[in-house]
Amino acid sequence: MARLGVPRGLGEAESVRRSGGVGNHAGQKVETSHGLLILNADDWGRDHTTTERTLECFLHGAISSVSAMVFMEDSERAAATAREQGIDVGIHLNLTTSFSAPETPARLIEHQTRLAEYLSRHRFAQVVFHPGLTNSFEYVVSAQMDEFVRLYGLGPKRLDGHHHMHLCANVLFERLLPSGTLVRRNFSFEPGEKSFLNRLYRRFVDRLLTRRHRLTDYFFSLPPLEPSARLERIFSLARQFTVEIETHPVRPEEYNFLMGREFAWLSENVRTPPRRSALL
Questions:
Q1: Model's pTM, two decimal places?
Q2: 263 part of a folded domain
Q3: What is the separation of C-alpha 6 from the centre of its chain, rounded to a whole number of angstroms?
Q4: Residue 192 lies in a domain
C-alpha cells in the first residue's frame, strides 16, 4: 500500500512506533512498539435499532468504542446501556440531522435548523466561515457538550461529527472543540484517490487540528467491503500504526461483516483498545 502521510500530535493511545518516539499535544515523548486498531461505531443513541445493532457488535467483540448522539430519541436509554456495559463513548456532534428527542429545547432546534440549512446549501459550505452563524455554532455545540455530561457523567475525551461536520470552518476557527481531546481527522487517501486541492485542504485541516488536539495516524470508513484487498491493507496498517475505522452497524452489510468470519480473520493478531474501559 502506498504510504500515507502520518500526522504529528498523537496522544498515548494514538502513538505509533517510531525511532525516538513521537510527540503528543504537550510535546512529550511516548514510546510504543505496537499499532492499534480502533473500530468505532457512529450514531449511538440515534434510534432504538441503531443502538441495539451496535450493542450486539460490541458484545460480539467487533467494535471497541462508540460515538454518541445526544438529543435523539434513544439517547437516554443508550447512555444508560453504555454505563451498564462499560462502553467507551465519545460524542458525535450533530449539526445537520434534526434532533428527535421529544424534550429538545425549542431554541436549540431553531439554531440547529439554521446550521443545517447553511451546511447543506452547497458542497463548499463546510469550508467557508460564516460570521453570521458564530453564535448558533457556539450554542449548538455547547448544548450538546452539556447534554453529554448530563447523560454520561463526564465530558467527552473523544470527538467526531455527524457527516464529519466537526471539521467545518466555523467549528475549527471558533475553537469550539475542547483542547487536548482526541478528535477524528480527515479520511486517509492514497495518492490519486482525490484531487490535489482536496488532499491539500484536508492536510491543512489535519495540521490545524494537531495544534490543539490528538489524532490517530489513519482514518478510514469500513465500506466499501470489496475488494477485500482494501480491508486487508487497512488492517495490516494497524499492526504498526494507530488506525481508526468508522462503522455503522445499523447498515446490514456492515453488521453482517462485523459479526462474520472475515472480520474475525482480518482482526486476528491486531491490537485493539481494552474492552469495557476508557480508551484514554
A1: 0.85
A2: no
A3: 17
A4: yes
Residue 81, C-alpha cell as written in the block: 446501556
Is the backbone peptide bond immediately before 274 cis, with ω within 30 degrees of 0? no
Residue 35 has which C-alpha cell?
499499532
Domains in the chain: how many in total? 1
- b/e sequence 75-93, b meaning 16+ C-beta within 10 Å: beebbebbeeeebbbbbbb
Secondary structure element (H or E) that encloses residue 107, with its range: helix 106-119
- Burial classification of residue 174, based on how many CB atoms lie within 10 Å of its CB (0-12 exposed, 13-18 middle, 19 or more buried): middle
Residue 69 in any domain: the answer is yes
Residue with the three cell numbers 467545518: 168
pLDDT in tens, 53-103: 999 999 999 999 999 999 999 999 999 999 999 999 999 999 999 999 999
C-alpha cell at 21: 518516539
Contact yes or no for 259/61 (Cβ under 8 A): no
C-alpha 184/C-alpha 189 separation (Å) is: 15
Instruction: List the grid coordinates of 190.
Output: 492514497
CATH code of the domain containing 186: 3.20.20.370
